[in-house]
What we know:
This protein is an alpha/beta fold. The chain contains 12 helices and 10 strands. It has helices at 12-23, 35-54, 63-68, 76-80, 94-107, 123-128, 161-173, 189-205, 211-221, 228-235, 237-250, 259-266, and strands at residues 4-8, 27-31, 70-73, 85-88, 113-116, 136-141, 150-155, 177-182, 279-281, 287-290. Helix 1 packs across helix 2 and helix 8 (189-205) packs across helix 11 (237-250).
Amino acid sequence: MNGIAAVLGAGTMGHGIAQVLAQAGYEVRLRDLERERLEAALGKVQANLEGAVARGKLPADQVASILGRIRVETELEAALAGAHIVVEAIPEDLELKKRVLAEVSAVAPTLELVGTNTSSLPVTEIAQATAAPERVVGLHFFNPVHLSRLVEVVAGERTAPETTRAAVSLVEALGKQPIVVRDAPGFASSRLGLVLGLEAMRMLEQGVADAEAIDRAMELGYRHPMGPLKTTDYVGLDVRLAIAEHLHREVGEAFRPPYVLRRLVRAGKLGRKSGEGFYRWSPEGECLGPA
């Protein structure tokens, strides 16, 4: 056993982070305010594991033991009891993250490592809400967590070198590839990926090509596994809009959200999770073609 790790938030990212920690041998405490969301998260983890078995990537007899290492909690104190690592995976809201990590710091002041899973928010500011900002680091996991290899380790202005090293070791123990970046707006991946996605949206607005052709250009021409518009659907149009607005304020005009993005979000067309964005999606998450 590698110890106890608490994961805060049982949504899209949280359940995936809990899964990979459990697969790496950690005893995981998955915490969310809603019991129904916790039960749904366990169901998604089980489905992911069974999918790995079907693909020959995981022995069938390991499913029960991995699931057995994930315990769900609704109370913060219970989730943090005995934990030496915490990964926060709550919604991408700066004030919410600061408030939750301040509570974590008050309940468990001796944690060895506090990771915040954010794709663009300032890790330095989030860490300042805690009593020990030197032990806070950004851990930017990618969706789907159990399949994506990359994790950005984001060092804030007060992140201690030993915290960064510990975070890199943790990521490697999960079987993933860490890259270390400094705490700059959008880090490396979000900034580069988003500017490509926003330009693809502008091309769509200007009638340069349809969504499928734009995506195919990047998939076949540049060997991207998924085109920028389909990636936006996968991430969530609302998530990409929030990141774009943040980077527009912090970096400049290159990140001004295109009208088509705002229009689709206002219409509730958020991509894969809502069934429609730039593409149409089945309830099982299968792409059905351009919208």
